[in-house]
Design goal:
210 residues; Rossmann fold; 8-stranded mixed beta sheet; 8 strands; alpha/beta; globular; single chain; 26% helix
Length: 210
């Protein structure tokens, strides 16, 4: 079953960029990503509205959830969820990002971070261990089929995969690669017992339930 939900818009600043606005698109080599984070790479801010909408469409509070944040960057989503009572594990293959995430979440005893390549090593994480596996601004850079299959194996019973992505067709200046196109979204929607979709400004959010 697919449900299309509506929601309020948020400011638009999708995608991870370096200080000159260049997308750090290569997820086969952590070096440019490490360099970008060292130079102050930025990405769309996690707002209270974003977390509120996630909780609303999950149908349960954030407190008490176990969350895997895939390609967590500097830990902004992990911090936002952890501060609402979730137990969060963040993974990213950029060592600089993981260091920053640990510093950002040092006040959260239930936040942990691992340097890990999401394209190759998600199966190193506990099977059936997470209520939510989140791909925030990340899935377009991964092998979608492999990443989702590995994420599905990480889900606890009644778990949900949460995808937040730019839409490729809305990108300009050669930045289409940071988002999912229509065909990729159609593929993403298949094979689940329920799919919930809602907008977040220029982004599309999907909750995938096995």
């Amino acid at each position: 079953m697919t449900r299309i939900a509506s929601g309020p818009a948020a400011a638009t600043a999708p995608g991870r960029t370096d200080n000159e606005g260049n997308s750090m698109e290569d997820l086969s080599d952590p070096s440019p990503w490490d360099a970008g984070y060292r130079d102050g790479a930025r990405y769309r801010t996690v707002t209270d509205e974003e977390v509120d909408l996630l909780a609303q469409h999950l149908g349960r509070p954030i407190a008490g959830l176990t969350v895997l944040d895939v390609c967590c960057g500097t830990g902004e989503l992990a911090a936002a969820l952890g501060e609402r009572g979730a137990t969060v594990t963040g993974v990213d293959f950029a060592q600089t990002a993981i260091t920053a995430a640990r510093e950002r979440c040092a006040h959260l005893p239930d936040a942990a971070f691992r340097e890990l390549d999401a394209n190759r090593a998600l199966d190193e994480l506990p099977a059936h261990g997470f209520d939510v596996v989140a791909f925030r601004l990340a899935l377009a850079f991964l092998d979608q089929q492999e990443a989702l299959a590995a994420a599905r194996r990480r889900l606890a019973p009644h778990g949900v995969i949460a995808v937040t992505t730019p839409l490729a067709e809305r990108q300009t200046d050669g930045r289409h690669h940071i988002g999912l196109d229509h065909a990729a979204l159609q593929q993403l929607r298949t094979g689940w017992s329920e799919v919930t979709e809602y907008p977040l400004g220029s982004l599309q959010c999907l909750l995938l339930r096995p």
